[in-house]
Amino acid sequence: MKILxxxxxxxxxxxxxxxxxxxxxxxxxxxxxxxxAVGKGPESRATCDWVRTHCDSFIGGNWDYGIGGKEFPAxxxxxxxxxxxxxxxxxxLPREAELTLGQLRFRLFxxxxxxxxxxxxxxxxxxxxxxxxxxxxxxxxxxxxxxxPFIRTLDHGYILNTGSVGNSLGVxxxxxxxxxxxxxxxxxxxxxVLSLPYDNQEAARIAAMDPELPFRDAYIHExxxxxxxx
Length: 230
Ligand SMILES: [Fe+2]
What we know:
By secondary structure, this protein is an alpha/beta fold. 31% of the residues lie in helices and 25% in strands. Helix 2 packs parallel to helix 4 (76-91), helix 3 (62-68) packs across helix 4 and helix 6 packs antiparallel against helix 7.
């Protein structure tokens, strides 16, 4: 069984097309979307539609709710591009899901707004709390939001990050997380980070041609360097 988790496409279609190629090659049994289909990049409508077509399970991210719920007047560019039906879909996405693989029960969410911003360097003392939700105790958390993939252990569980398809920080490639498992209690569970090159210059050109794109220069800097810029 192969399960792919991807998130943070953020309107970057060249990166999304690279991910689509990898999906065709890897042929996962199911694809989870963990939030932030839209915002930041110039092709939010296309990445929103891509998620709906290529993923099987969906969780919303802070940008999906912010834009879908029309929270910030400065997001008018995205509202116009997406149209009412997509905005309503984004705003209706569930905030959490869970997945049990053998003896391990994973909690799935985007990050914000379920919890505060969790960085790759956030220490265990703060992250441990994410393994509990009321009386529920999980063996692992799978999330996105930080735009950097990682695999770590907490004091009593795993914490796995998908990284970002379209707005990677640190290394400006397209990232996702693949879990593989043959289904037996003694079979190994494989956690794999996908790291894909894509045409960053093409993505920058598409953004440069759109004079209305909010924070256009910051976006171009992020996708060409991997350095957070706003
Ligand atoms: Fe994001």
